[in-house]
Design goal:
The complex is a heterodimer of chains A (164) and B (229). Chain A is mainly α and 164 residues long. Chain A folds into 2 domains: 99 residues, Rna Polymerase Sigma Factor, Chain: A (Orthogonal Bundle), CATH 1.10.1740; 65 residues, Winged helix-like DNA-binding domain superfamily/Winged helix DNA-binding domain (Arc Repressor Mutant, subunit A). Chain A is built from 8 helices and 1 strand. Chain B is elongated. Chain B has one domain. With 229 residues, chain B is an all-alpha fold. The chains are: A mainly alpha (164), B mainly alpha (229). At the A-B interface, helix 1, helix 2, helix 3, helix 4 and strand 1 of A face helix 1, strand 1, helix 2, helix 5 and helix 11 of B.
């Protein structure tokens, strides 16, 4: 393995949680999650040559991975260019990945699934405690617009919870 | 339940999933070793070929125009074609830029807009349909005259303007007056930005596939996000 690939593997291992979160948010079905995770890793590796360390790796990863997820989600079917391997990219030592959620977390997950592609990415970044500046940087939307979007999402979320 | 509390629970759940996850490094290595040709490369090559052919045609039209500048039917026909092909070339350059932006843009809005523009590229044909009517009439005028100029006897030396004793030219003028303004209007109306108009939505749905229709809707949404800024 080249040093470049080793660095990539190390960074990916450190930030694998982001890939898991994105796959969970964009794909309800397990097979799709697996295909998407592989497509994300492929695109991350392809773009890794252009990554500069003066940028935060998590911000860069979010940008690439969310773009892949949105494109994947919009295609409705797997890309003809990328055919996934049958083995799992991320292996879980318990059933945590697929464990059904109870109560409020289940409602929150349902809410995320129902959001439009771009709103979904904003919500994921918000839940990950990213600042409005970081969200704006990743999405390309201005900070003011991000604030407006998040307020709108929060209002809808509150309404969903109060209806239960 | 308070939103902050919900957020903390969500993050705790994310952390526990991450803790239980192990990356299959062998598979990462396999994925990284794959060579998949980008779908953008053929699109880029195709647009470059089309642009080159347009530029060659424009050069020919300019030469034609210089030689026939005082003969109104030929000069006007060539001018109409020239403007049309200049527009097509500008559009082609825009598509090449969009193709490159898919790779260069890193933020979500920039990349998804470039992708949606590429996916709706096919809409250019119905958009230009009305404007193409005057072009169809101008084409034989210029081509036949140019062939006579270079002494090529493809249509038995036929010049459509003199052969029809000016009738073609009269029809051409009427079509120019009616269809050029209508074509420009139609072109600007039939765009993703006007998807909120029912007739535009219906035309796009009728002339394109489900995929293109959805891409146009998405492009409208993305343009809205840019516009709100």
């Amino acid at each position: 393995m080249t040093t470049n690939k080793e660095t990539f593997l190390r960074l990916l291992e450190e930030h694998k949680g982001i890939v898991i979160k994105i796959c969970n948010a964009y794909c309800p079905a397990k097979n799709d999650k697996e295909d998407l995770s592989q497509e994300i890793v492929y695109n991350l590796w392809k773009a890794f040559a252009s990554y500069t360390p003066d940028y935060k790796f998590s911000t860069w990863l979010y940008r690439v991975a969310l773009n892949v997820a949105i494109s994947y989600y919009r295609r409705e079917k797997r890309s003809l260019q990328f055919s996934a391997y049958d083995e799992d990219l991320i292996v879980f030592n318990d059933e945590g990945y697929d464990k059904a959620l109870d109560g409020n977390l289940f409602l929150l997950q349902q809410f995320i699934f129902e959001l439009k592609e771009i709103d979904k990415s904003i919500m994921l970044l918000y839940l990950d405690d990213k600042s409005y500046r970081d969200i704006a940087d990743i999405t390309g939307i201005s900070e003011t617009n991000v604030a407006t979007k998040i307020n709108r999402i929060k209002t809808n979320l509150k309404a969903k919870f109060s209806n239960q | 339940m308070e939103l902050d509390e919900l957020k903390s629970m969500w993050r705790a759940r994310d952390a526990s999933i991450e803790k239980s996850a192990k990356l299959n490094t062998q598979l990462v290595d396999k994925i990284a070793s794959r060579k998949i040709q980008s779908f953008l490369k053929p699109v880029l090559i195709q647009n470059k070929i089309v642009l080159t052919s347009h530029l060659l045609f424009i050069a020919g039209l300019i030469i034609f125009l210089v030689y026939h500048i005082v003969e109104l039917p030929y000069a006007l026909s060539a001018l109409v074609l020239l403007l049309y092909y200049v527009y097509l070339s500008v559009n082609c350059i825009h598509q090449i830029r969009a193709t490159r932006n898919v790779d260069r843009s890193t933020d979500i809005l920039g990349k998804q807009t470039a992708l949606a523009e590429l996916n709706t590229q096919i809409l250019q044909y119905p958009r230009l349909s009305v404007l193409s009517i005057p072009i169809f009439l101008s084409f034989p005028v210029v081509v036949m005259k140019a062939l006579i100029d270079v002494k090529l006897n493809y249509f038995n030396g036929l010049d459509i303007i003199t052969h029809t004793q000016g009738k073609w030219w009269t029809v051409e003028l009427i079509v120019y007056i009616l269809f050029i303004p209508a074509g420009i209007w139609f072109y600007h109306q039939l765009s993703a930005g006007n998807m909120d108009k029912p007739w535009v939505r219906n035309v796009i749905r009728f002339v394109s596939s489900k995929k293109v229709y959805k891409a146009a809707q998405f492009l409208k949404e993305l343009q809205g996000l840019k516009g709100e800024e």
